Amino acid sequence: LAGNALLSNFGWSFTTGGYAEARGVTDESFSDGTHKGYGTYQTVKLGITQTSKGESMIMDSYGRILVTGYGAASAGNGTAMRIWRILPDRSLDGSFGEKGVVQYFYASSGVDNEFIGRSITIDATGKVLVAGESYLASGGGLTVWRYNFDGSTDESFGTGGKTGYPSAWRGFSIALDPAGNVFVLGEILANGVFGP
């Protein structure tokens, strides 16, 4: 790294995986302790196991998997945008949010209020950004949320850690450029027709 030349040639060798690994056989070492080759991560709130759906995932520089999606906010009370952070040992990261899960919803949400995470990314400082949508009785549209490394809301972003674009309907994909600018691929309503 310092740019110093090696005093002599240095060689090494390695062995590639066999055919079984190359053809897509399930990696059974990936397990949540109950299943082999996959994990399920449910959210329990108010004593009720909430049905959830994952929409997008990314791995951070520590080998942790972050998944965004949505699920029931509470018993029959709209949906919450969710982020799960999974450790390399496949358990939920208890240092992130509430027992490894971040949720965004209104405590007084009605059944028609929905918040959905569609795409997730991480910026250079470790902050987590999610693009998706909000549906409210008072209106909604494309929404971007930003959370700190520990899953707390980044209050410096937008209003209360989120920003919305009422003229756009939903956000499908999010990306950052080298300067940290946020780009979202979404859908807008123009002349009565939805389009990218």
List keywords for this structure.
single chain; 196 residues; mainly beta; 4-stranded antiparallel beta sheet; 1 helix; 2% helix
Fraction of residues in H or I helices? under 10%
Principal-axis shape equals globular
Q: In percent terms, what proportion of residues is strand?
A: 35-45%
**Multimerization status:** single chain
- Secondary structure class reads mainly beta
Strand order of the largest sheet: 3-4-5-6
Largest sheet: 4 strands, antiparallel
Task: Please provide the ordered H/E string of secondary-structure elements.
Answer: HEEEEEEEEEEEEE
Rg from Cα: 20 Å
Output mean pLDDT: 82
Notes on the structure:
This protein has 196 residues and is mainly beta. The chain is 2% helix and 42% strand. Strands 3-4-5-6 form a 4-stranded antiparallel β-sheet, with no helix packed on it. It has a 4-stranded antiparallel β-sheet with strand order 7-8-9-10, with no helix packed on it. Strand 11 and strand 12 form a beta hairpin. The longest helix has 4 residues. It starts with 18 loop residues before the first helix and ends with a strand. The mean pLDDT is 82.
Question: Can you describe this structure in just a few lines?
Answer:
The chain is mostly beta strands.
